[in-house]
Amino acid sequence: MSDATDLVTRARAFVGKPAATPVAARDPVNLPAIRRWCDAMGDRNPVYQDAAAARAAGFDGIVAPPAMLDVWTMSPFRPGGRASTERMQVLELFDAAGFTGVVATNVEQDYDRYLHEGDRVHCTAIVEDVSEEKRTALGVGHFVTLRYEFTDDAGDAVGRMLFRVLKFRPPLAQAATAQAAAVPKSIPHPRPAVTHDNAFFWEGIKARRLLVQCCAACGRLRHPPGPMCPQCRSLEWRTVEASGRGTIHSFVVMHQPRLPALHYPLTILLVELAEGVRVVANLLEAGAQQLQIGRAVALDFVEVEPGYLLPAFRLA
Amino acid sequence: MSGFPRDQAAIVGIGATEFSKNSGRSELRLAVEAVTAALAEAGIDPAEVDGLCTYTMDNNPEIEVFRNIGGRELRFFSRIHYGGGAAGAPLQQAALAVSAGIAGVVVCYRAMNERSQYRFGSGYTPPPLPTAESAHYGYYVPFGLMSPASWVAMAARRYMHEHGATSEDFGRVSVVCRKHAASNPRAWFYQQPITLEQHQASRWIVEPLHLLDCCQESDGAVAIVVTSSQRARSLRQTPVLIRAAAQGAADDQQMMTSYYRRDITRLTEMELVAAQLYAQSGLAAADIDAAILYDHFSPFVLPQLEAFGFAGRGQAKDFIREGNLELNGRLPTNTHGGQLGEAYIHGMNGVAEGVRLVRGTSCNQVPGAANVLVTAGTGVPTSGVILARPE
Ligand SMILES: [Zn+2]
């Protein structure tokens, strides 16, 4: 991992130095900008917008919401990306090394005084810290901590902000997750793969009949379906309709993962049919407490989606 | 039927990436990192590799690995199907190829971003093509029985019923694996042992399996270099002989759901592997000094102990309760922490630990370990190997 060590060394060379060219706010602190911010944030405190209320509260006039501290010097939106003076070389180092993802993880602001209409804010961002490589839920990455110093025209401090971002390698899984999230909520219930060999089984279930394959030559029953009798190798077969009586050979109670159409915790049975073959199906209308191996069950069917039937069992 | 070329091939190098939840790089890169690390450990130039073996579930074709490592002539390549059941079989392929003179240096590898790119535990979605393989899942997935844990749980419940094993007996497997992982710096759960109480308190995934009965999901890669035992003598590592290597699929074998056998509490495919390994090696259970038993889910460690004759039928719970899987027990097991504790690299990391045990370099070394058993995935067509120290 000498690459990673090298990257951290190069990034840490920026610690204590300005992250980008210091900037002065394009506009002084002003009421229209404050109004827009308060509307967006749902902040109805009158001292930010009503001079009389502000004076009643002991101010000389309206003041800006303190949390707007970094708003005044934010870089404007540029469709082509940031201007060279606005870019932070320390972050670009990580971009170049494949850590192209960015997410803000911490913001802490300190205020020295309220900002008034007409104040012009100046800002210098300083690289405070660069972490070792970390494994995070978003991916492998480095935390970069920036300290923003805010001053007025006189050069006096008005506040500061600690801003931490995670620069991470975007894992491929993120794309897949985003796709999954885009799938409509009504995910179809999983369908079986129907082949020449098992079509009779699924057709039978559509007709509320549980059919078991039976060798036409030697009479042996088999499930799951297959083209050849493992006992006599005959390719000829017919079907026998199960009586629907059986006993629980084993069972599980599913908690995870879940299918949207089913109710959880979900009881799934391995049933030994009276005919001697076993099938897997759900248990209807009974809690797991009542279950035990050997318990008698009876066949039923459940419609998991309109027109989509599955066999299921009830306690007999 | 013991025509296996016993002791004729040897493992001469092992390599791995770190084990993580998000490798941050491609599976192919993990593969080539592990393969070249293993070759470097062996002191063999990658250009000498003329054989590659992996799993069908591996997403890194042999030719991609081969051209990336600068290979020249690939004479032998093969892949083994059935998920983690392939953990031992590539070594069998390699040993056969090397002893037959078909290939000189065969590297077995498994590389995956199983945790960050896809998760086996998230449930199976059948492919749209109607094939025998996709048809199989139709008998389970529509009913919600759709994860490896759930397929194992069905057999585990029956095992508990027939043999009186309890969830705590499964938990004891997890506890000992996590104990061993706690002193293995490579392990994801390094320095994080668990108690039986924590196991019992962990949430249900699918009853009767708790969360702590289930192995991790991991990103990482492991590679193993195999060459002839003769050449191994002149290489830099202590050779680890492939004393025996076998595959097995048995009566009415299904992929994880062999529910239609008369007795679903046995792993008859593993019994078949055991019989072959003992016949090939001339060894018996009493000769095995340590074991790496596939532990994707703790319950299937019990019937494995029975399949290999370490415990009688249904008596694995007693064998475990007596502390026999501990380092000072009769059969120190999963000394790296297993897949429950170290990482889930589809069993290939267990092979690497088997090599370390025979070399005497495990971080939980079993003194004098001369014959080490390594098994592959359970509930599926499977495989196993016995690794041995030269006389
Ligand atoms: Zn027949």
Write out key terms for the chains shown.
heterodimer; A: about 325 residues; alpha+beta; Thiol Ester Dehydrase, Chain A; OB fold (Dihydrolipoamide Acetyltransferase, E2P); six-stranded antiparallel sheet; five-stranded mixed beta barrel; 14 strands; elongated; B: about 400 residues; alpha/beta; Peroxisomal Thiolase, Chain A, domain 1; nine-stranded mixed sheet; two-stranded antiparallel ribbon; 13 helices; 11 strands; globular; binds zinc ion
Structure description:
- The complex is a heterodimer of chains A (316) and B (391).
- Chain A has three domains: 13-70 and 98-174, Roll (Thiol Ester Dehydrase, Chain A), CATH 3.10.129.10; 191-241, no CATH class; 244-316, OB fold (Dihydrolipoamide Acetyltransferase, E2P) (Beta Barrel).
- Chain A is 17% helix and 32% strand.
- Chain A has helices at residues 2-12, 31-41, 51-56, 89-96, 173-182, 199-206, and strands spanning 23-24, 101-111, 122-130, 134-135, 140-151, 157-168, 211-215, 221-222, 237-241, 245-254, 266-273, 278-283, 296-305, 308-315.
- In chain A, helix 1 (2-12) packs antiparallel against helix 4 (89-96).
- Chain B is an alpha/beta fold.
- Chain B has a single domain (9-117, 215-388), classed as Thiolase/Chalcone synthase (Peroxisomal Thiolase, Chain A, domain 1, 3-Layer(aba) Sandwich).
- Helices cover 32% and strands 17% of the residues of chain B.
- Chain B has a nine-stranded mixed sheet with strand order 3-2-4-7-1-8-11-10-9.
- At the A-B interface, strand 10, strand 11 and strand 12 of A face helix 4, helix 5 and strand 5 of B.
- Strand 10 of chain A pairs antiparallel with strand 5 of chain B.
The CATH homologous superfamily of the largest domain in chain A is named Hotdog Thioesterase
Beta-strand content of chain B: 15-25%
SS element count, helices of chain A: 6
What is the overall pLDDT average of chain A?
Answer: 89
Which architecture name of chain B does CATH use?
3-Layer(aba) Sandwich
